[in-house]
Amino acid sequence: xxxxxxxxxxxxxxxxxxxxxxxxxxxxxxxxxxxxxxxxxxxxxxxxxxxxxxxxxxxxxxxxxxxxxxxxxxxxxxxxxxxxxxxxxxxxxxxxxxxxxxxxxxxxxxxxxxxxxxxxxxxxxxxxxxxxxxxxxxxxxxxxxxxxxxxxxxxxxxxxxxxxxxxxxxxxxxxxxxxxxxxxxxxxxxxxxxxxxxxxxxxxxxxxxxxxxxxxxxxxxxxxxxxxxxxxxxxxxxxxxxxxxxxxxxxxxxxxxxxxxxxxxxxxxxxxxxxxxxxxxxxxxxxxxxxxxxxxxxxxxxxxxxxxxxxxxxxxxxxxxxxxxxxxxxxxxxxxxxxxxxxxxxxxxxxxxxxxxxxxxxxxxxxxxxxxxxxxxxxxxxxxx
Length: 385
Ligand SMILES: Cc1cc2nc3c(=O)[nH]c(=O)nc-3n(C[C@H](O)[C@H](O)[C@H](O)COP(=O)(O)O)c2cc1C
Description:
This protein is α/β, with parallel strands linked by helices.
């Protein structure tokens, strides 16, 4: 049933619609929503409309190559799964569905620090590239512990998220009673009862929690307690020295996620970071922060080829990926497209999202007159508005 339903989704927006029908409203809104007035959330996708793609004719496009290299690994497409916490809330298999999906498509999967499957649990789920998203924790022992565990579990890269000194003000979650502590309204209870498949699995499986932190809860492993612990532990006085220390400890490919200023990107490149990930956290943190696509050109210029630049956020179409690559990104991270797929139909849904984006990229390159993703550049773009 799930496979048939996801096969009938022809674009990411169709998967979003199916996800909305499958999971309770409070869960859907947790995926779909952004901070405050959601200006940044909307702009992150709308910003791609500031560019048109201008086709070159008389180009041999009988063979299209969309494979590339990201953080030292050959990948089948310029796509990366962004880190997203608690995936077992969206589908009972959570990371156990999304990691193999990414592995089958040979695109990197980034495990969130707040994942509902542990670092060790994810290590064996696929042979594809696996990255781990890390924060600077006040207790630096946690940082050391995560790094050691990632090395042991075969993760190939780290992604340091720097835009969460505090969680953004996501009003859909507050209104839905989804903020901690959980407050279920009668309307929400009725809504949950109207999603029998999600409810069936929710009742048969243990409650999802922050699997990497269960030994930090002093006996209380509930998501509420561990989320509170995480919020307290997020370092609010993060400095470039912390970033340098992490680089020395990890001693492998390292990206920095949440960069929106050219000077920060230049500093990261100068320090030897391997990738700058241009991101506003999917519009979930500071509302009215710029869209990644809007600041990408100045960041590419500041980095000046010293490290890779990855765009994260707002991507819903293959043409969005082409535009980012034309502006100098190596690849695009995306979050919600794969979560919509996961919520809509588990691994099959997540793979459908990957298939859709890959298929669009391939077709659009042919239409654009560009046979290899490495040849995309500003010659194909026209800025409007
Ligand atoms: C439900 C959800 C959970 C997220 N959790 C994390 C997280 O744990 N760590 C992190 O660095 N970013 C997290 N993000 C942000 C994503 O990594 C990414 O920046 C964002 O989703 C990109 O925007 P997009 O969804 O439009 O592609 C989360 C996003 C969503 C939607």
